[in-house]
């Protein structure tokens, strides 16, 4: 089907000359055309069509967001004249590495490239994308920081020294057509592109501060896009009614409150991965003191659509990544950070997939995905154990049941919870006792499952590479022209040592001879002038050490310049060509004996033993009492018992750190009747025979959590007002 004016008018929400948002998704379009009249077009959605090339977009100079996912694209010629774009979604197409050269100059805030078979079949997919596109800020939902670009540069440098180097997909000096040489002048500049190029020049320095500024600009761009989408669609984003810069506010308040922002990120990811009831998330935010971050009411973020929440968690994960590069600790240990990093990538792929069910099944079959999902569930369950409403949903809501089973790894955990509840009721215990026992059971199960996950050996994917010095080839000369000049003259390069053949034959034992040099002490040299016996030598010294540490060369008594030496106590040094005392180390000017350095080495050994080192040897298992060769890592034998080794335990859960910092506990005395409990009680009192409906959940775009959420708030508010009025009447 060809794109015609009639289809454009039917999809546009207003006159074509002023329309800013155009949704042409899933229309069977094969060619892009007839967009000349849409001069102010800002967002173009061509998702799910049959496009095989990108053309005829030059007339839309204000274009900022383009969604070309789930097509059959093989050519990107139509994007080569743009200078900057906000969001470019090219996922699930048929692109090749050659097409990346056409958008290499393009500044892209958020680029999605996953789902292209020709690209993803390379095990170093992300590394090559980062290397080929130097002006992309975020790739597949994950921020590209300055540290990551430096790692990619070092990766290719170190890989070039291995036996099987990894080559660049695109050459640094690729051919540039004449029309593209002045793209910064002749390119398509809209208002957004001009603003970006003004804030972030091409030749600007890229460091950690630049990453933070880029992240705030991505948040600003998201807010502007939501305002335009709200204007032309039926999506009513309630958070924009009172706070239009909510994402910038969260990023600004993050440096003073990293732990709470990271916990908010984890809960948002959990709401995307698991189907969580709306009222449970509301009570969780209030109990954990996360209901307000900065000037933003966080519950409104959970009520946004799934795609918007995926974008928000990508921005928050980018903030965590920048903090990691800047050595800032926000409570996220490494494995939990990798869990969020991998999970958000999978959620981004799922939001852009054609068949989301098939994509979700493939992800669940991945063992790494299962381990990370279990780790995420365990962290969330440990936090929910202080929320009283959580125990009401364990046996009622399917999403919460799935969360608990995933965290504990026990499929029969719900039956055990029911048995404990019945046992407490039979004993006459109250609700407080029952919740405490359930909390203890869940925490024990979660901790056992977490230890099982943490003790598993890490799985390395095919994209991981470990460079070791044993695999490295000799380093090439920095300046190959100089080396070539020496080769032309038939001379070996001076930067390389000539080849040497080391024989396994031991050198013959040397006997003292007249004229041999001796090193008798620090700065004390002499020569053999006589051999009265075969191993007794008369040595003449040029200088003699004085009492004050100086060296005297002309003494009044000439006898002080001569001494007899027992040659059995000396050893011939084949490298330095002189005799020196056995067990001594040094050169022609200095000499040290083992006895002189014993105290210093022991001091260094004690300092080294206090530090935890990986793969430390077990001194208790050694057979001999003394080492053959002295090393500062070997402790001196003593009668004292050996000091036990300190083992590094598993990292402490982030939820436990937050509960300890904010003093969060399971307190039933301060519990108020939740909105969900009030609605269920009201429904059961009105009609007992009718089955209770499942609670509203934060899932995808099909449900409407906003309406039920506000109804529940009104119900809870009315109930509180009734209780207050009754208390006032009782006091009167």
Give structural notes.
This protein is of the alpha/beta class and 732 residues long. It has four domains: 5-199, Leucine-rich repeat, LRR (right-handed beta-alpha superhelix) (Alpha-Beta Horseshoe), CATH 3.80.10; 241-463, no CATH class; 517-595, no CATH class; 673-731, no CATH class. Helix content is 42%, strand content 11%. Strands 1-2-3-4-5-6-7 form a seven-stranded mixed β-sheet, sandwiched between helices. It has a four-stranded antiparallel β-sheet with strand order 11-12-13-16, with no helix packed on it. Strands 8-21 form a two-stranded antiparallel ribbon. Helix 16 runs antiparallel to helix 20 (431-454). The radius of gyration is 37 Å and the shape is extended.
List the helices and strands and how they pair.
Layout: H1 5-11, E1 21-23, E2 43-45, E3 65-67, E4 84-89, E5 107-112, H2 117-120, H3 125-132, E6 136-139, E7 142-143, H4 146-159, H5 183-186, H6 191-199, H7 208-232, H8 239-242, H9 246-253, H10 258-273, E8 276-277, H11 278-287, E9 292-293, E10 296-297, H12 299-302, H13 306-325, H14 334-352, H15 356-364, H16 367-384, H17 388-393, H18 398-408, H19 413-426, H20 431-454, H21 480-488, E11 517-521, E12 524-533, E13 536-541, E14 544-545, E15 551-552, E16 562-566, E17 570-573, E18 578-581, E19 584-586, E20 591-593, H22 594-610, H23 654-662, H24 675-686, E21 697-698, H25 705-731
Parallel strand pairs: 1-2, 2-3, 3-4, 4-5, 5-6
Antiparallel strand pairs: 6-7, 8-21, 9-10, 11-12, 12-13, 13-16, 14-15, 17-18, 19-20
């Amino acid at each position: 089907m060809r794109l015609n004016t009639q289809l454009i008018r039917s999809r546009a929400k207003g006159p074509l000359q002023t329309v800013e948002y155009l949704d042409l998704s899933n229309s069977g379009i094969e060619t892009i055309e007839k967009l000349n009249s849409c001069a102010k077009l800002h967002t173009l959605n061509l998702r799910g069509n049959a496009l095989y090339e990108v053309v005829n977009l030059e007339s839309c100079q204000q274009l900022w967001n383009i969604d070309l996912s789930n097509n059959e694209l093989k050519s990107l010629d139509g994007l080569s004249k743009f200078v900057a774009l906000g969001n470019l979604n090219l996922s699930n197409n048929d692109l090749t590495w050659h097409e990346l050269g056409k958008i290499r100059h393009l500044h892209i805030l958020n680029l999605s490239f996953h789902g292209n078979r020709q690209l993803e079949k390379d095990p170093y997919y992300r590394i090559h994308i980062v290397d080929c596109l130097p002006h992309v800020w975020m790739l597949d939902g994950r921020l590209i920081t300055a540290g990551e670009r430096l790692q990619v540069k070092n990766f290719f440098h170190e890989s070039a020294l291995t036996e099987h180097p990894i080559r660049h997909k695109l050459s640094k000096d690729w051919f540039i057509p004449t029309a593209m040489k002045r793209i910064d002048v002749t390119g398509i500049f809209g208002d957004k592109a001009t603003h970006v190029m003004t804030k972030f020049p091409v030749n600007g320095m890229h460091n950690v501060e630049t990453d933070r500024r880029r992240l705030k600009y991505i948040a600003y761009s998201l807010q502007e896009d939501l305002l335009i989408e709200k204007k032309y669609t039926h999506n009513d984003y309630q958070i924009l009614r009172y706070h239009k810069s909510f994402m910038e506010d969260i990023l600004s308040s993050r440096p003073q409150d990293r732990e709470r922002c990271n916990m908010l990120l984890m809960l948002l990811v959990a709401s995307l991965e698991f189907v969580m009831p709306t009222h449970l998330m509301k009570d969780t935010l209030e109990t954990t003191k996360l209901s307000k971050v900065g000037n933003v009411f966080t519950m409104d973020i959970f009520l946004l659509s799934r795609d918007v929440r995926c974008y928000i968690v990508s921005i928050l994960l980018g903030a965590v990544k920048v903090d990691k590069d800047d050595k800032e600790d926000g409570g996220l240990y490494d494995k939990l950070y990798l869990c969020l990093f991998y999970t958000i990538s999978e959620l981004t792929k799922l939001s852009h997939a054609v068949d989301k069910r098939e994509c979700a099944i493939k992800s669940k079959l991945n063992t790494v995905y299962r381990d990370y999902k279990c780790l995420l569930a365990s962290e969330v369950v440990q936090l929910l154990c202080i929320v009283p409403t959580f125990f009401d949903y364990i046996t009622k809501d399917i999403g919460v049941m799935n969360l608990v089973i995933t965290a504990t790894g026990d499929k029969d955990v719900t039956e055990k919870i029911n048995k404990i509840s019945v046992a407490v009721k039979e004993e006459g215990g109250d609700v407080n006792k029952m919740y405490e026992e359930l909390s203890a059971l869940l925490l024990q199960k979660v901790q056992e499952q977490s230890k099982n996950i943490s003790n598993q050996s890490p799985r390395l994917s095919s994209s991981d590479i470990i460079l070791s010095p044993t695999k490295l080839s000799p380093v090439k000369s920095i300046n190959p022209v100089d080396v070539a000049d020496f080769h032309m003259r038939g001379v070996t390069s001076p930067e390389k040592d000539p080849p040497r053949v080391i024989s396994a034959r031991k050198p013959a034992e040397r006997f003292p001879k007249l004229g041999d040099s001796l090193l008798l002490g620090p700065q004390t040299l002499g020569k053999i002038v006589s051999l009265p016996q075969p191993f007794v030598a008369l040595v003449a010294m040029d200088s003699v050490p004085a009492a004050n540490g100086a060296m005297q060369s002309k003494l009044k008594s000439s006898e002080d310049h001569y001494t007899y030496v027992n040659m059995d106590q000396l050893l011939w040094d084949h490298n330095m060509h002189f005799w020196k005392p056995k067990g001594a180390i040094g050169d022609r000017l200095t000499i040290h004996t083992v006895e002189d350095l014993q105290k210093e080495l022991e001091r260094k050994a004690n300092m080294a033993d206090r530090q935890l080192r990986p793969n430390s040897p077990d001194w208790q298992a050694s057979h001999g009492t003394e080492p053959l060769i002295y090393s500062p890592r070997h402790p001196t034998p003593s009668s004292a018992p050996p000091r036990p080794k300190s083992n590094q335990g598993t990292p402490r859960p982030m939820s436990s750190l937050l509960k300890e910092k904010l003093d969060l506990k399971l307190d039933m005395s301060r519990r108020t009747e939740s909105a969900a409990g009030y609605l269920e009680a009201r429904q059961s009192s009105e009609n007992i025979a009718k089955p209770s409906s499942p609670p509203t959940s934060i899932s995808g775009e099909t449900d409407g959590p906003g309406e039920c959420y506000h109804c529940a708030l009104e119900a809870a508010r009315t109930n509180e007002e009734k209780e207050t009025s009754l208390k006032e009447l009782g006091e009167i």
